[in-house]
Specification:
The protein has 372 residues and is α+β, with helices and mostly antiparallel strands. It is built from 13 helices and 14 strands.
């Protein structure tokens, strides 16, 4: 009897999805609800974003984006002489320095999606709920929230100069486009550490959508990911978020339904382990099992038809093979919120108060003393 093809071997029978907690009550007896999160994660999916980690801290790079069209980019960390602490600017989930990781990219996509839908006051817990697809969850570990905060701070100090004039001219040949240029910080925001109501909370006031997202939106290369695909069970960590975000981008961006293959070494690298000899076999096995749980959930959600792990000549697993479902349709991206009307010229602006920000963060996004 002939052997089954790799894709016919694995037919999952169950789904492991995260069971989120219902709203909890804080010390005053009031219920603490999650903010109104959008239903889609909007991810920049440009060639520049895909190779952004290789462009950091170099001279101006010309990226060929198709048919000889070049986009110019210069991205760099603010120098140490500007007084940025090493542990903020240089740390990444896998402990490497001066890197831009898949986890950082997931954070950027989450922040861009939240800002696009009108949420410009955020906290690590809000971002955690969004990137894990669990809008009502309250049980994130302090380590996971700290990893989110470190990524936010790191991206605050990445400066980007991007010239995509040729690319935009190709997309709009009839328009008189003389210059298309963006310059600024990767995640433009202010960070708050506030002590109020008997406990400490922190949050971010976002000033604008991230530059890489605005660039991708201008050339129609934003990939929408439904939150239901992110709701995969298990402990949340930077490496696990990086894994499932990378796999979802790879699956959803693929055109057609022909089988695709990803090397496990690529997935381990996206999780933060480019050199597998520096981690244990047991840990790599746990990552592979988590990948299997993600793929199992996506089969039952209708995103995939089937999947399987492929063994190499020495009998060890070397790659992941999957087949995208024909029934999957690309969801529509949310429109940016309408700007409020300008006040009359003779109407004075209300005085700014940090207390207002503190109350907003605490009431909507903060964590109560009992962990809610």
């Amino acid at each position: 009897m002939a052997d089954k093809s790799p894709l016919e071997k694995n037919k999952p029978t169950r789904t492991n999805r995260n069971t989120t907690n219902p709203p909890k009550k804080n010390s005053s007896g009031a219920e603490v609800y999650a903010p109104n999160l959008p239903s889609l994660l909007s991810v920049p999916n440009t060639k520049v974003s895909n190779i952004f980690d290789t462009l950091l801290d170099k001279d101006t790079q010309l990226v060929e984006v198709g048919n000889g069209v070049l986009t110019s980019i210069k991205a760099y960390f603010m120098p140490l002489t500007d007084g940025i602490p090493d542990n903020i600017r240089l740390r990444s989930p896998a402990g490497k320095s001066r890197t831009y990781t898949e986890f950082d990219r997931a954070i950027l996509g989450a922040v861009a999606s939240l800002v696009r839908t009108g949420n410009n006051i955020l906290s690590p817990a809000t971002i955690a709920r969004f990137i894990t697809g669990c809008p009502n969850a309250h049980d994130f570990s302090d380590t996971f929230l700290r990893q989110i905060d470190e990524s936010m701070q790191k991206q605050l100090y990445i400066h980007i100069e991007l010239d995509y004039t040729e690319e935009l001219r190709r997309k709009h040949p009839d328009a008189d486009i003389r210059t298309a240029r963006l310059e600024g910080w990767s995640l433009p925001h202010e960070r708050y550490v506030l002590f109020a109501g008997g406990y400490e909370t922190q949050g971010y006031r976002l000033h604008d959508e991230p530059i890489l997202f605005r660039y991708a939106d201008a050339i129609d290369q934003v990939l929408p990911i439904p939150l239901s695909y992110l709701a995969v069970g298990g402990r949340n960590s930077a490496e696990r978020v990086a894994l499932k975000h990378y796999m979802l981008r790879r699956i959803l961006a693929r055109k057609g339904t022909m089988p695709d293959t990803i090397l496990l070494s690529t997935l381990y690298e996206k999780a933060g382990y480019p050199d597998t000899s520096k981690t244990t076999r047991k840990h790599l096995q746990s990552l592979r099992e988590y990948i299997g749980r993600c793929m199992t959930a996506w089969v039952e959600l209708g995103l995939l038809d089937e999947f399987d792990f492929i063994r190499g000549k020495n009998g060890s697993y070397t790659s992941l093979c999957f087949k995208k479902s024909k029934k999957v349709k690309a969801p529509k991206l949310p429109e940016p919120p309408e700007l409020p009307p300008e006040p009359p010229a003779d109407t004075p602006d209300e005085p700014y108060s940090e207390a207002d920000d503190a109350q907003l963060i605490i009431s909507n996004f903060g964590r109560s003393p009992d962990g809610a």
